[in-house]
Amino acid sequence: MLRWFINKASKSNPPPHVPKVMGDIAAMGLEDWWLSTFSESDREWMADTYAPLGGRPRPLVEGGPFSHSPNRFSYLSNAATWFSKPGHEHCAIAFLNKAMEHLGDDMNIIDRHFALYNLSETFYRWRETVSGALDNSVKCAEMAVSFHEETAQAFSKEYNHIPRHPGFTRLRIVAEKKGDFDKALELCLTAQRTGWEDDWPKHIARIEKKLLKATKAAKA
Prior knowledge:
Layout: H1 2-12, H2 23-27, H3 31-37, H4 40-49, H5 72-80, H6 89-100, H7 109-125, H8 133-146, H9 148-159, H10 166-178, H11 181-194, H12 200-219
């Protein structure tokens, strides 16, 4: 009788359905994080939204695993840019925060450079509405600048060209807005010496004028 009661109870109260997660999320072992962090509607929206050119349908949660071992830091920071849309910024921020947990993962220096760029830019977009977003944007930019010489060498060797460095740009803009013209000028001079592409003479001339004006005002 007791066994019959237990069996009947288990049939009338089946365990909650746990959706099957495959695709990239499963390949990276992030199923629990995916299910516990986002609502069902968020998960469906992200699965439909993330569609890299040439990829399979709904690659985030459907299809087979990667053909190679993915790097979580690079993947999550790049994927976050797809979700950085009004009303869904919490999805982008969650991906960025998860990426930050894997900053120490081994990866190609140029890939790390671009991953930090994506982190910094996406955090910066939500600086007015998400607490801590600006601080994280600056942190990522500072990290990218911390190994800029090695990155410049890698770009020069791989592409025979050194492009603009978004980390220097972000930090210069933040420093100028804060009125820290000494730091803004130092950033410009450092980037220029290393060979990063930009209109450095124009930036340097503008910042020097602001610095001179601030110095005169302080002495007045």
